Amino acid sequence: MEDRRLVVKDENERRDLAIASAELAERGLELLTQLFSTLAQKPPLVLTLAPGVTMEFVHVPAGRFLMGSTPEQVQRAIHEMGRGSWLEPEQPQHTGELSEYWMGKYPVTNQQYQAFVQAAGRTPPKHWEGGKIPSGKEQHPVVYVSWHDALAFCQWASQAAGQPIRLPTEAEWEKAARGTDGRTFPWGEALPDEKRCNFNDNIKDTTPVGQHSPQGDSPYGCADMAGNVREWCADWFDEGEYARRGQTIVRDPQGPHRGEHRALRGGSYSSYASNARCASRDKSGPNLGYDHHGFRVAVSSHNIPRRQVVEFEPMKAPAQPVRLGPAVLPASNKLVVSLAPGVTITFVRVPAERFLMGTSPEQVQRAVREMGAQEDWLKNEQPQHTVELSEYWIGRYPVTNQQYLAFVQATRKTAPEHWRGEKTPAGKEQHPVVNVSWYDAREFCQWASRATGQEVCLPSEAEWEKAARGTDGRTFPWGEELPDELRGNFSMEVGDTTPVGRYSPQGDSPYGCADMAGNVYEWTSSLFIGYRHQANDGRESLKIADSRMVRGSPFNYSGRFARCASRGLPLSLGFKNGNVGFRVVARPLPLGSEASGLWGNESLYP
Questions:
Q1: How far is CA 12 from CA 7, 20, 24, in A?
Q2: Given pLDDT bands bounded at 50, 70 and 90, which one contains residue 543?
């Protein structure tokens, strides 16, 4: 009997040991995976936002990863997590390819956001009583922030830290959350629990960032990517985007050019387990901010070669010789005028002649086939038609920070919000000015008219498009070749604005205009009215206080929107953004005339 009891005891111990060993092996494999991933990473990047306020970033290397959900993951979500129909926007799973970047280790905290509020004079979140962080929540993620609030934080943080800080794309968010192996959750395949994340109203509030580390961390060391707060991404949300990609490998994918909602990623403290999956997609209006909406930020790497956009076809020899820039423009086609001592502005001549405006059926099909556009986006560019314009002179470049500074100093106008007082951002004197409203651009024109003795104003849509494409109806300023890194600043290739003229002469228009495909959106004088374009149809009325069109394409939009005929969004007159600037038109006055400043007797101010 004694020997039998010893045998039973040994068997129980062996069984318990086997169970413990299996659990240890499973946990050990998970820990080893995290360890090797950590060892392969570059050291964290720590940036200073303000005295005593820093932000930590982890490195995400360049390469391919699995994005979206497989049929098996869909079935698992339905059977184990009770979610079904909402999964369609995550399918099919496909391969994405990203350049390297740095991702915020944590969501932006109340303490970090407070530094922004204090430095930029920004309105604090509505639940901060008296403008103060809720007691004890300095290290909790900031909430009640809209997409626009998050974008404004990025613009301020970029200046404060001296790095191009921005919102991540959906693809960047998902890769940072799941790594390259297509796992369901940041930590692997085990369902969420209270050790790994804050979800399912277990706590009924946010928790300090990193509270669930390292158990809940992603392969790259990102914390809180499953639970705590939903996080804004840079992209417009399009539920059919993955279906259109199919199995095409897309480099640095982004959402559509326009939309109604911005993308949100990650579950919140009140979300179900299904929302904590890395592939889970959500959306919200960009002006909304709730108690579970926060964000984290990313930084583009400066240590990589500028990349090609692989979804574009290889370059072909141009059908016509490329027109060169201002160095070879005849003197009769250039007008250089002084704005202030040491500050000039160059205009190029656009002669009176007819041109093709809008997009032809063939160009529509090409944009859909080769550039990933949707036909619905292009309806407001149709039909292509002939427009005749009188002669005018248009700015060779968008208005720069240096030129706008002369205006600010002469008029005591308030500088753009991302400037520090009356100082342009360091090293960006020749970058296009941004964060300027239509009203700001109008006031610049009125001042420039007086300063130059010319009649200076914003271009109409027709004037902008003719200056960009000439008379032959070409697709891009340089011709028919698809955009590449030699011709323009687009698709977050650089991650910020670039000095005007950087892509000359390769990216110039037939008249010598630079930066008309990429860098910044540009205000026009035109209301949004469909085509056919007619100058007397009311679209140029300055008595209507309604949204005005922007043209061109900004640095953070895909190259497919760099087409000359692409019509941007109608933006409210007071709208300001880090990717919206303007260029101006001059109508030289006869000798002896006095510049009154176009629009001088009309007012659109609220």
A1: 9, 12, 18
A2: confident
Could you identify the residue written with the tokens 């005591």?
Answer: 412
CA dihedral of residues 517, 160, 167, 285 (deg, nearest 10):
-100
In angstroms, how far is the first alpha carbon of the chain from the final one?
98
Q: With contact defined as beta carbons under 8 Å apart, do 94 and 68 qualify?
A: yes
Both structure tokens of 563: 């087409």
Distance from C-alpha of 111 to C-alpha of 104, rounded to nearest angstrom: 15
The rounded distance, in Å, linking the Cα atoms of 160 and 112 is: 12
Strand-pair category, 281-284 with 293-294: unpaired
Query: DSSP label at 336?
Result: E
Please report the DSSP string for 60-72 in residue order. E-SEEEEES--HH
Structure-token pair, residue 376: 């619905």
Confidence of residue 82 (pLDDT cuts 50, 70, 90): low
Lowest mean pLDDT among 65-74, 91-100, 538-547: 538-547
Closest CA to 355 of 381, 376, 385, 325: 385
Nearest to 465 by CA among 575, 389, 398: 389
Q: Say which residues have a Cβ less than 8 Å from residue 272's Cβ, sequence separation at least 6.
A: 81, 82, 83, 199, 200
Helix H, strand E, coil C: the string for 510-569 is CCCCCCCCCCCEEEEEEECCCCCCCCCCCCCCCCCCCCEEEECCCCCCCHHHCCCCCEEE
Instruction: Classify burial at 170, counting beta carbons within 10 Å of its beta carbon; exposed 0-12, middle 13-18, buried 19 or more.
Output: buried
pTM of the entire predicted model = 0.50
Residue type, 295: F
CA angle 567, 573, 575 (to 5 degrees): 85
Among the listed residues 503, 468, 505, the one whose alpha carbon sits nearest the alpha carbon of residue 486: 503
Q: Cβ(35)–Cβ(23) under 8 Å?
A: no
Mean pLDDT of the chain: 84
pLDDT digits (tens, 9 = 90+) for 171-190: 999 999 999 999 999 999 99
Give the integer Cα–Cα distance in Å for 302 and 293.
30
Task: Look at the block and give the residue holding tokens 């790994």.
Answer: 196
Cα three-residue angle 94-95-97, rounded to 5 degrees: 145
Sign for the pseudo-dihedral over CA of 303, 306, 308, 314:
negative
Alpha-carbon gap, residue 487 to 597, rounded angstroms? 34
